[in-house]
Amino acid sequence: MRIPDDVRARLASQTSQLWGEPGVIDLGIGQPQDALLPVEEFRRAMASAAVPRFQLQYGIERGDGLLRMALADALTPRYGVPVDAERMIISNGNSQAIDWCCATLAHPGDVVLVEDPTYFLARAIFADHGLRVIGLPTDDQGLLPDALEQALITHRPAFVYTIPTFANPTGTTTSADRRAAIVELIARHGSLLVADEVYHLLSYGAAPPPPYCAWLDSGVVVCLGTFSKILAPGLRLGWVQAAEPTLARLVGHGTLVSGGGLNPFAAPIVTAMLQDGTALAYLDRLRSIYAARVGVMDDALRDAFGPERAGGEVTWRTPEGGYFFWLQLPAGMDAAAIRPHAVARGAAFQPGATFSPDGGFGHCLRLSFAYYGEEDLARGVRIIAETVTEAITAAATGG
Length: 399
Ligand SMILES: Cc1ncc(COP(=O)(O)O)c(C=O)c1O
Hints:
The chain has helices at residues 5-13, 39-48, 65-79, 94-105, 120-128, 145-155, 176-188, 246-251, 254-259, 267-275, 278-309, 335-345, 374-396; strands at residues 25-26, 88-91, 111-115, 132-136, 138-139, 142-143, 159-162, 193-196, 221-226, 238-242, 324-328, 347-348, 350-351, 364-368. The protein has two domains: 5-30 and 280-396, Aspartate Aminotransferase, domain 1 (Alpha-Beta Complex), CATH 3.90.1150.10; 42-276, Aspartate Aminotransferase, domain 2. Helix 4 (94-105) packs parallel to helix 5 (120-128). The protein is an alpha/beta fold and 399 residues long. Strands 2-10-9-8-7-3-4 form a seven-stranded mixed sheet, sandwiched between helices. A three-stranded antiparallel sheet has the order 11-14-13. A two-stranded parallel ribbon has the order 1-12. The longest helix is centred in the C-terminal third of the chain and has 32 residues, at 278-309. The model has no long low-confidence stretch (mean pLDDT 94).
């Protein structure tokens, strides 16, 4: 069913889950393209999955056991570390899991340390719980251990929130050595690490280092995974890995005590898709589609900015996974001010300052390659590059 443009525009104005404005290629949208959603795969799985009576009952607090076992089997080879179904609970996806962490691992007024820049909508969840968000500097491997240690001493945070692999918005991945150093610091200073591994399975080159669940034995790691980017966001289904007693603190959340485990009805469908290989085959199809889009976008950026500007005034790293290109314009440029001019020409992006707790990174912008096909991506990039180039020229000539 095609949603009429006026209805779409009205819905878009009511949601942070950005839907494209009609006539605008909005490369700010960080969600999967409708046309790529696995409708047929779900039809088949729903027709064949048995829905036992207990799946229509309240579920056990930790979430469906068969789903957790199927997930452990599917994730172990992909993560490259053993995944234990006993140290996992089922969530409604990472947004809900972040909310859980705030509710059970922190108190209002506590500090949460984050990478600066970070996932802007997580900041809204921290604000819901009255948490104070402090951004930390990063390099091309994410959090800097020295700065992290200083902040752990100064702020005594309830937890540190990190997006360690193919980060939103920068695409950065933290190396295995850096991860080990970060876990050691967090343990030494008595805090917790909440690792949002939303993009871990979406790699387009060499496999990334193991996710933070490799350090579960430390007792200080909470590792969040989700089906949103690898199967369908509408499922509202994910998983949380932690060691006891942190897992028990999460499971003690009032909504689980009252309402039981999450999403028992979806569990047999997704379990079937994991067990028969459908889910991983779909993931691999997505990876090859996104890998091709990265190539198209990279070429389009290079062509549109031209040999002098690309890699000089305008820089980016070609993503090796995830959803995003992160472009840096010359210092002092204001991407938010450039955006309306790009929109008027038919393309949009997310300005960098959106992602910074301190409003920094105004000269950066985030482009996603998930929501549009190759042709639209190339067209959107051309429009954005044209608009940015004019703004750079105007700034240089005082115009
Ligand atoms: C870093 C990060 N965390 C969480 C989410 C949302 O995850 P979920 O759909 O599982 O709630 C996103 C989606 O864009 C994201 O980029």
